[in-house]
Each structure stands twice: as C-alpha cells, then as structure tokens.
Design brief:
This protein is of the alpha/beta class. The protein is built from 12 helices and 18 strands. α8 packs parallel to α9. The mean pLDDT is 95. Bound molecules: ligand LLP. Pfam families: Orn_Arg_deC_N.
C-alpha cells in the first residue's frame, strides 16, 4: 500500500529540526522538504509489484533535483529523460546509460547521435525521427530502440495531462497501424514498443486500455517480422495520486492486477518491461514550508502573504478548479497551532492577482512569522518553476529517518543575476 502523505506532526518535527540546525537563517524564508525514506519505500513497492528485472525508469521531469535522482539510482532505479538535458542530469546522478530511457518529441540529429553513442534506450516519437535514427546508426550495435505509439484512448479529467487523445502531439497514432508494421519490417533495429497514456486525472480503465492497445501490436508485428522481435515493452507512467482528502487513490497493486487480467501476455517473462512512473513516486513525498511575511485585510478577506506561489505551483494558479494542495499552518517555532479557525486566503509573492494558493481556508489564526505548510509538492513543482519576478529557487532539504541534509542550496540574488546575464 502507498504510504499516505506526510502528517502535519511529522512535518512539524522535521521543520523544528531544520530551524534548530539553522537552515532558515540568512535570508531563507521557504524550503522544500523531500522524504527520501518514503521515496525509497515507493520504489521498493514498484519493485515488488512488477516482475523481477523490470527497469523502473523514474521520470526525471517529475523531480529533477540531482540528489533526489541519486537516491533513487542508489535504490536501484533507472531514469526516464524527457530532454537531452535530462539525460545529462541522469548521468550526473550516477545512472548507468543502459538504465536511462530517452523520450522526447523533439530530439535533434545531434541529440540522437549523442544518445546512441552513450547507449541509452531511445523511444522514437515519429517516422521522421525513425529515419534520423536509422541514418545515425550506421553499422553500430544499437541500444534498445522503441517506437512510441499513441493508443488514442482519449483523455482523462485533466486535459493538459492527457496525452493519448486522437490528435495528441506524442507518438505515432495507433490508427496508422499498417505504417507501424511496415516500420518494424524496414528497421530491424526496432525492438521495443512504448506507450504513455497520461498523468493525473487518468481513470484506471483508460490507463490499462491504452497499454493493452499498444501491446496488441506486438502480435501483429511478430506475425509480420518474426517471433521474439519485440524484446522490450515500455508502459510509461501515469498513476494518479490523491491530492484531496477525499480523492480515492489508485493503488499500484490495483493497476498491476488490472494489467495482468487484461493483458495476460505482458507478465509472461519473455518480454523485458520498462516503467516510467514519476508522480506516484514523488508527489506525496514532498512538502514545502514558507514563513508568513505579512497578514493583511483586503475587503472582506484576510490575506496571508507567503514566499511560494505560482512560481512553485503554476498549475494551481492557472487551473484552480483542477489542482489542489492541502495547506496547514505551524507557528513560528514550527509547532502546530491550536485555537479557533478563521478563513484566510493564502497568496504568493508574484505580481499578478492569480497568485493565490487557497481561498478562504479555515485555519487557526495565522500571524506573521508563522509557517504555512503546503503538502504533496514532490512532483511537477520545482521542475516547472516559473521565473516570473525573478525570485530565487528555494532551498531543498531531504530527510531520511533522523538525518536532514541539503539537497539543493537556495538561489541567492547573485545566482539570479548570473542566471539572467549573458
Ligand atoms: N513517461 C512519459 C513519456 C511522460 O510523458 C510522463 C509524464 C511520464 C512518463 C511520467 O508520468 P507520471 O507517472 O508522472 O504521471 N506537467 C504536468 C505533468 C505532465 C506529465 C507528463 N508526462 C503537470 O502539470 O503535473
């Protein structure tokens, strides 16, 4: 079973340790915390649910902090890269090239050549890219190379994280079945199939149906070009997590059981498997704490101004109906606050009115100097950081049992000047 999100009491304990160890001195007003023990536990659950030997390539884009990637690699993970830069991050984290999976719909000729020279897995997004790979390969022995197929199963409840609609920009639409079979015939180096259906908001049935549709190509391909040709099947990621208290999470076990039932040929042992989970590994392992800088009255609303906003949570600001994070308050010493609740609106520091994290939340009375805790920010937050107003990236701390360590220093004003300079 996935472990639930960090409890506020545990966040309080970790925050108090961070305060005692001086991490909030010298201009630090906010920090992100990543529970590395929890990340490892999730990874172990992946390993136990899937057949031994499955390559679990965790999506770098979900959380690109190198020390977090390193913790995963040390636990036995591979890494999935959505850009050549992410391939480099994976290497920097100590991941062997043979355990890196490079997916991107925009690979350049140079990136393809470099990826082939490194020996990373390559998932080809379209037929033109396939031609580029064929000409880059020459006579060299290829690493595993797959074709990404869009199963065209439709979207989930969140359009922007659904990638298997009929005209999605990712992969080759499965309706071009004949051309897909011809491509396998023309290119003997193609040895894998790749599918990724979507992310948050995908129903279990849609995820499984997407994988099943692409897996059904295996038989057609092998009938055409010979048995054993498909050596690897990459089923992507996409397991949603429970952000709201009343969200019902899809347990990994339910997903794996549904895959087994619907696609008996998937787990038979003669097919190498790859997964690319991101959100399910990281989202609920991360939380943020920001000092409250000001509390002010605006019309009928009490506003608490904090140091994290739409820069960290861009989706929440622009699509407040679709995205949600539990928010709580701790006092200036990091202890839970008691007392009657009153409505407060939590706003970020950026220069637009949409920079709101929660409206009219019922929380114990917030004072300047208190900490606002934002839960479940471990995936697709820092990696989607917005440079609006040029505020520096926050400090990232990791903890594992009793040890607390810096995973990434905060960006200082000098660092930001460097970033924006020639
Ligand atoms: N593999 C591929 C090819 C992907 O495109 C993705 C996510 C994953 C794996 C990992 O999926 P996960 O297990 O994390 O759901 N910007 C979005 C997130 C987009 C995720 C897209 N692809 C957000 O606002 O949260």
């Amino acid at each position: 079973r996935w472990i639930e999100r960090t409890r506020l009491d545990d966040a309080s304990t970790v925050l108090r340790r961070a305060l005692a160890e001086g991490f909030f001195r010298e201009g630090t007003s906010a920090a992100l915390f990543h529970d590395l023990g929890r990340v490892r536990a999730r990874f172990v659950e992946l390993e136990t649910r899937f057949p031994a030997g499955t390559l679990h390539a965790v999506a770098v884009k979900a959380n690109p902090v190198v020390e977090i990637l390193r913790a995963l690699v040390n636990a036995g993970a591979g890494l999935e890269a959505a850009s050549f830069e992410e391939v480099r991050l994976a290497i920097a984290a100590g991941c062997p090239a043979s355990r890196i999976v490079f997916d991107s719909p925009a690979k350049t000729r140079d990136e393809i050549a470099s990826a082939l020279a490194l020996g990373v897995h390559l998932n080809v997004d379209n037929f033109d890219e396939l031609d580029r790979v064929a000409s880059a390969l020459g006579n060299t022995r290829p690493p595993p190379i797959g074709l990404r197929v869009n199963p065209q199963v439709g979207g989930g409840s969140i359009a922007l994280t659904s990638v298997a609609t009929r005209s999605s920009k990712f992969g080759i639409p499965i309706e071009r079945r004949d051309e897909i079979l011809a491509a396998f015939e023309a290119h003997p180096f193609l040895s894998a199939l790749h599918v990724h259906v979507g992310s948050q908001g995908m129903p279990l049935e849609t995820l499984v149906e997407g994988v099943a549709r692409v897996h059904s190509l295996r038989e057609d391909i092998e009938r055409r070009v010979g048995a054993g040709r498909i050596q690897t099947f990459d089923l992507g990621g996409g397991l949603p997590v429970a952000y709201r208290p009343d969200d019902v999470p899809i347990p990994l076990s339910a997903y794996v059981d549904a895959l087994k039932t619907k696609i008996p040929g998937l787990f038979t042992g003669d097919l190498g498997l790859v997964t690319e989970f991101g959100r399910a590994i990281h989202a609920t392992a991360g939380w943020a704490a920001s000092r409250v800088e000001y509390v002010k009255q605006a019309g009928d609303e009490r506003l608490a101004v904090i140091h994290l906003g739409a820069d960290l949570l861009v989706r929440r600001a622009y699509r407040p109906d679709e995205w949600y994070h539990e928010i709580a308050v701790l006092d200036a010493d990091g202890r839970p606050k008691a007392g009657p609740t009153e409505p407060v609106t939590i706003v970020g520091p950026l220069c637009f009115s949409g920079d709101v994290l929660a409206k009219g939340l019922a929380l114990p009375c917030i004072d300047p100097g208190d900490f606002v805790v934002i839960h479940d920010i471990g995936a697709y937050t820092l990696g989607m950081w917005s440079r609006h107003c040029s505020r520096g990236l926050p400090l990232v701390l990791g903890y594992d049992g009793d040890t607390l360590s810096v995973l990434k220093n905060r960006e200082t004003p000098d660092d930001v000047v460097t970033f924006w300079s020639r």
